[in-house]
Design brief:
Blueprint: H1 2-6, E1 13-17, E2 21-26, E3 30-36, E4 39-42, E5 48-51, H2 53-58, E6 66-69, E7 72-73, E8 76-77, H3 80-94, E9 105-109, H4 115-127, E10 133-137, H5 138-145, E11 156-161, E12 166-172, E13 175-182, H6 186-201, E14 203-204, H7 207-217, E15 228-235, E16 241-247, H8 248-254, H9 256-272, H10 275-284, E17 286-289, H11 298-306, E18 310-312, H12 319-329
Parallel strand pairs: 1-9, 9-10, 11-17, 17-18
Antiparallel strand pairs: 1-2, 2-3, 4-5, 4-6, 7-8, 11-12, 12-13, 14-15, 15-16
Length: 340
């Protein structure tokens, strides 16, 4: 009974509205939703068939009458109406009954977001039923989620590799001192794997399959033991299913360009840093967050490139939402981190 009564009271929330996944945190409850940012609709009527995990299960297997949409692209809203509907549906899963008053919502966004893209996020959240919307830089949220002392003058460097963007930033005293927002991340790596297999083996695979391959055998540096995987794809010549074997060196070669682009972004941010901030980063190390942080050997590759310690945050996939959630729990303390 108490739980049903509480549903009528507005609770501050946080959202990581990501290209690949959307996560929601409710103050006092923690992370309450983690679903793919996907919507399935009927082509003829436009009616929504499935959202989130159910929509992802249809991807690659849907009929010609079904359209799978990812309303986020490169970390920002690409399809406004679908994004608004998706957010409202996710909030409907979070609240059994929508609160009488509209809750405050903290939303993590890429560092390089434009004023138009910011407005789109705020308007989508407003249409979904949120009250006042507060925007926070994703690397700032990731740093808070990693437990870094962002309120101190000492510089903290975070590399957040998501589905659509890679955010590199040095943070000091509640502010992003220097940064790069690179629209190269997990999706770009998946696409590179698909293209490589298509060109080398004349076999087509889905980006979802590429994601699985990347997670299982992908690496940024040569491994002590060769990893390989048998995969089934569609032979481009015959149109028939075909089984091929792919090794970790294949995937490393396929992902070389997006991986090097991330390394170069790290270098550029270090070059932008003041001598004092660069000295702080040399002492504190570089912190990795986001799904891309799970790529085998990435820490070693960054260390080789810049000569600094590289640390993976705990549960990197949820670092951003943990940080944004912490902001809702200690709103006054983090008031200076908001972009609007």
């Amino acid at each position: 009974m108490f739980g049903r009564m509480m549903d009528f009271l507005a609770k501050d929330m946080a959202m990581d509205l990501g290209t690949a996944n959307t996560l929601i945190y409710v103050k006092g409850k923690g992370i309450v939703l983690d679903e793919p940012s996907m919507v399935a609709t009927a082509k003829s009527s436009g009616e929504v068939i499935a959202i989130g995990r159910e929509a992802k299960n249809l991807a690659g297997r849907h009929t010609k009458g079904t359209i799978i949409t990812r309303p986020m692209r490169d970390g920002v809203i690409y399809d406004f109406e679908t994004a608004s509907f998706m957010v409202r549906s996710f909030l409907g899963k979070v609240f059994r009954r929508f609160p009488l008053s509209r809750p405050k919502l903290v939303v993590a966004v890429p560092v390089g977001i434009t004023s138009v893209e910011k407005r789109a996020v705020i308007e989508a959240a407003d249409m979904a039923g949120a009250g006042k919307v507060f925007l926070i830089d994703e690397p700032m949220a990731a740093a808070i989620g990693a437990g870094l002392p962002i309120d101190q003058p000492s510089g903290q460097m975070v590399v957040d590799i998501g589905g659509g963007t890679t955010e590199v930033a040095i943070i000091s005293k509640f502010a992003v001192s220097c940064s790069e927002s690179l629209r190269v991340a997990g999706d770009e790596a998946n696409e590179a794997i698909c293209n490589y297999i298509r060109q080398k083996h004349s076999v087509a695979i889905s980006e979802m399959m590429a994601e699985v391959i990347k997670m299982k055998i992908g690496s940024a540096v040569p491994l002590k033991k060769t990893l390989e995987i048998k995969l089934r794809g569609k032979d481009l010549a015959s149109g028939m299913p075909k089984v091929i074997t792919i090794t970790d060196s294949d995937i490393r070669l396929a992902m070389r360009e997006p991986t090097l682009a991330i390394i170069e972004a790290v270098r550029r941010v270090l070059e932008k840093a003041t001598p004092d901030l660069a000295s702080d980063v040399a002492e504190n190390g570089i912190w990795l967050a986001g799904g891309g942080a799970l790529l085998k050997g990435l820490r070693a590759l960054i260390h080789q490139a810049v000569g600094l310690d590289v640390i993976q945050t705990e549960d990197p996939l949820r670092a951003v939402i943990r940080g944004a959630g912490s902001v809702t729990e200690h709103f006054d303390h983090y008031r200076d981190v908001f972009l609007n």
